[in-house]
Specification:
InterPro entries: PutAbiC. Keywords: Membrane, Plasmid, Transmembrane, Transmembrane helix. This is Abortive phage resistance protein abiP. The protein is elongated and about 110 Å long. It is mostly helical. Helix 4 packs across helix 8. Helices cover 63% and strands 0% of the residues.
């Protein structure tokens, strides 16, 4: 477009100069050509010379009109495609949001979220995530932690073979916390699996459209803001813990990178959208979810998406504990700062 504008400008300047200098050219022609060429051989008036000049300029003007028409058509087509993409994104977003709200309003989902938030995460009696579950450093799962009186969602047994492989291994305190919170989320997963799946799909769809430039930044942020307004502070905390500590939440955690769903640094300082489960969750855990001005977190998300897709070894995938263990700074060396 800029190249075409430059050519058009040059041509218009040329035509203007030619018309402006036409009288001078006529005088020069009369003074110089008449002595060298027989007047009987060449007899061109200024009007005829102007006609010749116009006949030369006419194709150029026609070409300019043609190029301008193409430019307008291209612009209209781009605007039409943008409008179609916007309409498509809008329909898909609100369709998925409607499905999500239906799952969100189910009594089982409400009870599961309440259990996870009040008991598994924020219980003040030292039997929760924020207090490390009273875990004593030792070997395997033979550490003590108190279960809650309400066992509607959380059984008292620890017979799940999924966790028995850790029995005779030395685990760090952080790993033990991860195992306990994972068990609690696993025990309610069958009651809210659709909740997480639909929420994951909404984010994945928005990110895909944004990456393909089918959704501009303003619309993208607007959709994220609308999505945030549908979530209670309890839900935001449950989604955050699920994304950071539960292996099933790995994909969701990656899609959350750079979205600003949890807010920005200012929001974190004043607990704008939810009360951060301290001291277990620190600001460094949340910073990766911020939509920074440089777009570095968006690049991180793309890098982690590609890295996850590239894992075709089952054993390697099983060794990934969760989002926190998956994100590695060395993966991003070639992405940061570009």
């Amino acid at each position: 477009m800029k190249k075409f504008f430059c050519i058009r400008t040059i041509i218009f300047v040329f035509v203007f100069v030619m018309l402006w200098k036409l009288p001078s050219f006529g005088l020069w022609y009369g003074a110089n050509v008449k002595d060298k060429v027989s007047p009987n051989a060449i007899n061109i008036s200024r009007v005829e010379l102007l006609k010749i000049l116009i006949s030369l300029i006419a194709p150029i003007l026609t070409f300019l009109v043609f190029m301008n028409t193409l430019s307008i058509q291209k612009k209209n087509q781009e605007e039409s495609e943008k409008l179609n993409n916007s309409d498509s994104a809008n329909r898909e977003f609100y369709s998925l949001l409607d499905l999500f709200k239906k799952e969100q309003n189910k009594s089982e989902t409400i009870k599961a979220i309440s259990f996870l938030y009040k008991n598994a995460i924020n219980d003040k009696n030292a039997n929760s995530f924020i207090n490390d579950y009273n875990i004593h450093i030792g070997n395997g799962l033979n550490f003590s932690f108190n279960l809650f009186e309400s066992t509607e969602f959380f059984p008292k047994t620890c017979n799940n073979p999924k966790y028995k492989k850790y029995k005779d291994k030395d685990l760090t305190k952080e790993q033990k916390v991860e195992l306990v919170i994972s068990r609690q989320f696993d025990d309610v997963y069958n009651k809210m699996s659709s909740y997480f799946k639909i929420f994951h799909r909404i984010l994945k769809s928005l990110n895909k459209r944004f990456d393909e430039k089918k959704l501009d930044e303003s619309d993208y942020k607007n959709y994220i803001g609308i999505l945030r307004t549908q979530l209670s502070s309890e839900e935001l905390v449950v989604i955050l813990i699920n994304s950071l500590y539960v292996k099933r939440g790995l994909g969701l955690g990656i899609e959350l990178i750079g979205t600003n769903l949890f807010g920005d640094e200012k929001d974190f300082k004043i607990n704008q959208h939810f009360v951060i489960p301290k001291p277990e969750i620190i600001q460094n855990d949340l910073s990766i979810f911020i939509n920074d001005n440089e777009g570095k977190n968006i690049k991180k998300r793309k890098a982690y998406e590609e890295n996850l897709k590239s894992i075709d070894n089952i054993a390697k995938f099983e060794n990934i504990r969760n989002f926190k263990s998956f994100i590695k700074p060395e993966l991003l060396v070639n992405f940061i700062g570009k």
